[in-house]
Design brief:
The complex is a heterodimer of chains A (562) and B (187).
Chain A (H helix, E strand, L loop, with lengths): L10 H5 L5 H11 L3 H21 L8 H9 L11 H13 L14 H4 L12 H17 L22 E5 L11 E10 L2 E12 L9 E13 L2 E4 L9 E8 L2 E6 L5 E5 L2 E5 L15 E12 L2 E10 L9 E5 L4 E6 L5 E9 L2 E8 L7 H4 L1 E8 L2 E7 L5 E9 L2 E7 L7 E6 L4 E4 L7 E6 L4 E8 L13 E8 L2 E5 L6 E11 L2 E14 L17 E13 L2 E4 L5
Antiparallel strand pairs in A: 1-27, 2-3, 3-4, 4-5, 6-7, 7-8, 8-9, 10-11, 11-12, 12-13, 14-15, 15-16, 16-17, 18-19, 19-20, 20-21, 22-23, 23-24, 24-25, 26-27, 27-28, 28-29
Chain B lengths: L4 H9 L3 H23 L3 H18 L9 H20 L22 H16 L3 H11 L5 H8 L3 H22 L8
Helix pairs in contact in B: 1-2, 2-3, 2-4, 3-4, 4-7, 5-8, 6-8, 7-8
The chains are: A mainly beta (562), B mainly alpha (187).
Chain lengths: 562, 187
């Protein structure tokens, strides 16, 4: 949740020594105060060592010289020699030691393009652009279930098409019933058929040059209201704030905020209005004006029951304090616990007034075995007192908590091994027990949406498209109900993030699905191309959210008011 | 003059054989390691393939449009050719672990104990990954490519690279620790 934590994405490259000086400095500043990332870094270092060790066994290349001799004999005239004007510019750059100014994108279907000599596929030189084209068609044809045809020697002069041109290959869902290019951050059901979601709408532009990835700019923040099964955009939606977090205290009161918890909106008396933060940020422990408090996560359960974790950061030095957990009772903020370097509070899950659980990650050392042996404790906070109530099996990570009541609490944990094993724990008010749910082997996350109902996100390793934008493992969703797991039929083309699933009654749920909007390069305007098998594509895209509704035993994509 | 890959591609675009030779000397060993590890190619097949890759670089250089470093472009071409070769001839295994196959020369070994105790665990751990997951790790760790460059080479969105690399880490660490015993697997 903490934007700074995005730094963890750089850890593989930090471990591999591939970051710029600036990148390294940023990562190190983050590592100085983040035990989780320090722990992860040791794992990445071990991964690097493993790969180095493995590659040491690759047989040596003993044919390089002979290979060059054979290659040199084949360097005859090119298929597409450089034109004189471009060649002269290039020659000048090289002669003067300037950075090479490569020519810009080639417009689509200009006379100059059509003059490029054509060669059959056998000519290796055209292979790059052709394979791109072939592959795009193959990939998306496969996704759409088109019949595949084997690739044979092509007579189609597709190689003459410029590779700079972007074509929208996978347009995504056409009717989402949502504003333009919506991204949903939070979704909460408050009653059967009723709920709220927050997010933002974006103006997306297609890429225009070969190095362009397209742009996405905020159009408007979104507050979406679900009533009787239909979503509408609230006129209270903010113009310039993308919303990420949503807490509904009751059907008549709620809070929303941006991703950084810096701007808040309060729902009461039927309207969402910009508001001060619902709870005060902890005061700075020093008088250093450069210090500021960074909220890591916040949870609002009631006007007199709010929680946050965060830390002080110094804008000049980049250093921070250990993460602390605070509770606000509507009048006073109370410091519950300051974490040591060895234990960081993970998500907080309030379950009653002045009562919450949180996951405490406890790195135990600095080596790779931590990933398999560290334990995650479930901590219980009641009236400011913290006790450790549950310790997972070594290597398991707590991923979710659902509390139907203080004597009906579900916790799920997943293991590092693959397929991940999910362990479910249940608290009946007196003791914690491990629940045998007979979870399908390929489920790696379970979210309980009721005391006897839950959803499991998994994957299947069935053969997917050979070169896929969606990954080889296909998403599968399983439904746990009345003690039985069944695989749900999903509308095709959506990935799920089960953090955004909400239900208020058995047999009904809403979730956010993700679809890829995808542009590819080198694709001709004309339709009706034969879809070959396999191949590669070159593209860029955005993720676009859709709302999915589980009702009458199946998931359907929401398409607007019925 | 020690030109970098970008300058070499520029000279190749102008038809400079020496530039291609320099690029070949620099990149052939890297591509050899990459393709041998990733696709379990026999040395003879690999040799043929690399010739086609550099021939493709020669022919495609005039139309080169930089998206990043030229190195990523060269790797992408190499990958296209493997894909092409697979499709045409089905001569390559579809999903191959790192191989010990060689052309008569014993694979360089670490110490004997290392070979026996650690190698099994490494092979097991790496073999548990899908080729796609192994590939992102290799490109990042062994070939020095950035997230964006890996996305360019693999022709997938950046987000896909991120999810693959994250998944691969979890899988690799866990498999390795399991196969090697919990405590000893630390190093």
């Amino acid at each position: 949740m903490n934007a700074d934590h995005d730094m963890s994405e750089l850890l593989p490259w930090y471990a591999a020594g591939g970051l710029s000086e600036e990148g390294r400095a940023r990562v190190e500043a983050h590592l100085a105060r983040c035990a989780i990332c320090r722990d992860e870094l040791t794992q990445w270092q071990a991964v690097g060592a493993m790969l180095t060790h493995a590659e040491a066994r690759i047989p040596a290349d003993k044919h390089a010289e002979a290979g060059w001799a054979a290659l040199a004999s084949r360097l005859d005239d090119r298929d597409t020699p450089m034109n004189a004007e471009e060649g002269a510019a290039l020659r000048q750059d090289i002669a003067t030691g300037q950075p090479i100014r490569w020519k810009g994108p080639t417009p689509m279907l200009t006379p100059r393009v059509s003059s490029i000599p054509r060669r059959p596929l056998a000519a290796i030189g055209v292979a790059v652009s052709l394979v791109l084209i072939v592959a795009i068609v193959g990939t998306f044809a496969a996704l759409r279930g088109f019949q595949r045809h084997p690739l044979g020697p092509s007579k189609t002069p597709v190689a003459t098409l410029p590779s700079d041109h972007w074509t929208l290959i996978h347009p995504g869902p056409t009717n989402t019933g949502l504003p333009l290019n919506a991204a949903i951050g939070g979704l909460v059901m408050v009653a059967p058929g009723d709920g709220w979601a927050v997010g933002a709408s974006y103006d997306e532009s297609a890429p225009t040059t070969s190095s362009d990835q397209g742009t996405r700019t905020l159009l408007s923040g979104l507050i979406l209201c679900l009533h009787n099964g239909t979503w509408t955009v609230s006129p209270d939606s903010p113009n310039d704030v993308a919303l990420s977090h949503l807490w509904m205290l009751s059907p008549t009161e709620g809070w929303a905020s941006d991703v950084a918890y810096s701007q808040f909106y309060h729902f009461q008396s039927g309207h969402w209005l910009a508001s001060q933060p619902p709870m005060p940020l902890p005061a700075s422990p020093t008088t250093d004006p450069r210090g500021h408090y960074v909220v890591d996560q916040m949870y609002i359960r009631a006007s007199n029951d709010m929680w946050l974790t965060g830390y002080y950061a110094n804008t000049l030095t980049g250093t921070g304090q250990p993460i602390s957990l605070w509770h606000y009772d509507g009048r006073v903020s109370t410091h519950i616990v300051d974490t040591s370097q060895s234990e960081s509070p993970m998500p907080i899950f309030p379950i009653g007034p002045d009562e919450a659980y949180y996951f405490a990650l406890s790195p135990t050392g600095s080596n790779v075995v931590d990933a398999g042996t560290r334990t995650i404790r479930l901590k219980h906070v009641l009236h400011g007192q913290v006790t450790s109530v549950l310790t997972t099996d070594p290597g398991n990570v707590l991923v979710n908590l659902y509390a139907a009541a203080s004597n009906d609490v579900w916790v799920t944990a997943e293991s590092h091994e693959l397929p991940s094993k999910v362990t479910v724990y249940h608290f009946d008010g007196a003791t914690w027990s491990r629940v045998s749910m007979g979870i399908p082997a390929d489920v790696w996350r379970v979210v309980m949406t009721g005391s006897t109902e839950g959803w499991g996100l998994g994957y299947t390793l069935e053969e997917g498209p050979s070169h896929e934008p969606f990954g080889q493992a296909l998403t599968a969703l399983y439904h746990f109900k009345d003690g039985v797991w069944t695989r749900a039929n999903l509308p095709s083309g959506y990935l799920f993030d089960l953090g955004r699933i909400s239900a208020t009654s058995l047999g009904e749920a809403w979730a956010v699905g993700e679809s890829l909007i995808f542009w590819a390069r080198g694709m001709p305007h004309e339709q009706g191309l034969t879809a070959p098998s396999g191949g590669l594509f070159s593209g860029t895209g955005f993720v676009r959210d859709v709302l999915l509704h589980y009702v009458n035993g199946k998931w359907v994509q929401y398409t607007g008011a019925s | 003059m020690a030109d970098g890959p970008d300058e070499l591609v520029g000279r190749i675009a102008l038809g400079d054989h020496d530039a291609l030779h320099a690029l070949y000397l620099e990149f052939r060993p890297r591509l050899w390691r990459y393709l041998a590890a990733q696709y379990d190619l026999e040395p003879a097949s690999l040799d043929d393939l690399l010739q086609e890759v550099f021939l493709a670089v020669w022919h495609a250089a005039p139309a080169y449009r930089p998206q990043g470093r030229a190195a990523a472009w060269i790797y992408a071409i190499a990958r296209h050719h493997v894909s092409h070769a697979r499709r045409d001839a089905s001569r390559l295994p579809k999903d191959a672990p790192i191989a010990d196959s060689n052309d008569g020369e014993p694979a360089p070994a670490a110490s004997f104990e290392d070979g026996l105790l650690t190698r099994l665990a490494l092979d097991d751990a790496l073999a548990q990954l899908t080729p796609a997951h192994r590939e992102v790790l290799r490109l990042a760790f062994m070939h020095g490519f950035s997230l964006q460059e890996i996305a360019q080479i693999l022709e997938v969105p950046v987000g896909t690279v991120k999810s693959r690399i994250s998944y691969a880490r979890r899988a690799l660490i866990r498999e390795y620790a399991t196969a090697n015993g919990s405590e000893e697997g630390a190093r």
